[in-house]
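User: Sequence recovery, please. Input:
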């Protein structure tokens, strides 16, 4: 009887949801907007926890000799060292990128100023004087049409357009301020989660073992530890890969005497966190900047960049990143392609460690089933 009543309640709930899909969707959208800063903060904490644990291990080894710092103080210092490191990396990248872009824009404007006399001479030589007269006559007729009533209508339309522009500007400013506040709240949430991560972990395990069977809770904890370790190794591998591609591009561009070697190296390193897509973006940006100086050097830069990227993508990336997450190179490539098709850039970044976790779980489950069947297949 309980099962029948439960099935009836579930059916009634599903029917009510089907009849009020729009209202439920709107409610879920509002709830998602409310919890979005917390979700973003949790993601930020998950990412920042990787370098933070490195600082914690380093400070822990240094603290063994004198034992002056407590665990909470080590965690606090590690968090701020992580935040300062990120700020310093951003400042370093901007200090390399902004001056190079400013110099390229300056050279572009200088080229335009040099080309203006040639354009004027070309116009004087090729534009028909009769055509200019016709255009001037049309301007005279337009000036006659701008009489009192027409001017009043134009002023009213311009005023309405100004009100629309002001309203849109206010809306953009409001949304920008809201986004900044949301990012600030997410950062605050991330900081508090990182400072209290030990207590949060203990509370999570307490709830798991209180409401699940012990074997199920153990399995969930094992998957959580595996996921955390896999993503940590993936981010570490990405940092190593970014450093390698930056050094390679800087050396090769310098050998070929191509401009913006440091800028393109930094761009490639930053955008390398978007596998297989960021490299193309960095290549296009670098080619556009070099094209301002010399189109032939721009073509050469594309060729050189693609050769370096091909060698790095085939020889270094699958081995460094794939090995860091325990994923074979072929699965690394397939995971990046599948994640990009499903979830775009975010999918490309996070799908490789996700597939690595699935790979390990499936492998272990298959090994356990083979062990029960007293079978062993060599890989």
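Assistant: Recovered sequence (379 residues):
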């Amino acid at each position: 009887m309980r099962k029948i009543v439960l099935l009836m309640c579930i059916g009634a709930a599903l029917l009510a949801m089907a009849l009020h899909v729009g209202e439920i969707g709107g409610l879920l959208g509002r709830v998602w907007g409310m919890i979005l800063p917390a979700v973003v903060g949790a993601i930020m904490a998950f990412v920042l926890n990787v370098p933070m644990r490195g600082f914690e291990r380093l400070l822990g080894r240094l603290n063994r000799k004198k034992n002056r710092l407590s665990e909470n103080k080590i965690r606090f210092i590690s968090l701020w060292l992580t935040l300062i490191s990120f700020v310093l990396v951003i400042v370093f990248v901007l200090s390399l990128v902004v001056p190079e872009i400013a110099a390229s824009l300056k050279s572009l404007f200088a080229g335009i100023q040099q080309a203006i006399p040639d354009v004027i001479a070309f116009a004087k030589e090729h534009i028909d004087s009769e055509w200019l007269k016709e255009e001037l006559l049309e301007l005279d007729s337009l000036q006659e049409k701008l009489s009192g009533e027409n001017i009043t209508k134009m002023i009213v339309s311009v005023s309405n357009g100004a009100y629309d522009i002001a309203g849109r500007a206010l809306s953009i400013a409001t949304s920008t301020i809201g986004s900044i506040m949301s990012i600030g709240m997410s950062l605050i949430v991330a900081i508090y989660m990182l400072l209290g991560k030990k207590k949060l972990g203990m509370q999570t395990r307490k709830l798991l073992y209180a409401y699940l069977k012990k074997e199920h809770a153990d399995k969930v904890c094992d998957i959580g530890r595996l996921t955390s370790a896999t993503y940590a190794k993936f981010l570490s591998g990405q940092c190593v890969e970014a450093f390698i591609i930056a050094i390679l591009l800087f050396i090769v561009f310098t050998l070929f005497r191509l401009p913006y070697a440091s800028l393109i190296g930094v761009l490639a390193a930053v955008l390398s966190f978007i596998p297989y897509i960021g490299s193309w973006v960095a290549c296009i940006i670098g080619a556009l900047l070099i094209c301002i100086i010399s189109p032939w050097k721009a073509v050469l830069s594309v060729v050189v960049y693609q050769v370096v990227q091909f060698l790095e993508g085939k020889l270094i990336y699958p081995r460094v990143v794939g090995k860091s997450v325990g994923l074979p190179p072929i699965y690394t490539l397939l995971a990046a392609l599948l994640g990009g098709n499903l979830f775009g850039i975010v999918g490309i970044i996070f799908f490789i460690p996700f597939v690595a976790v699935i790979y390990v779980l499936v492998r272990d489950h298959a090994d356990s089933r083979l062990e029960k069947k007293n079978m062993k297949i060599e890989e």
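The radius of gyration is 30 Å.
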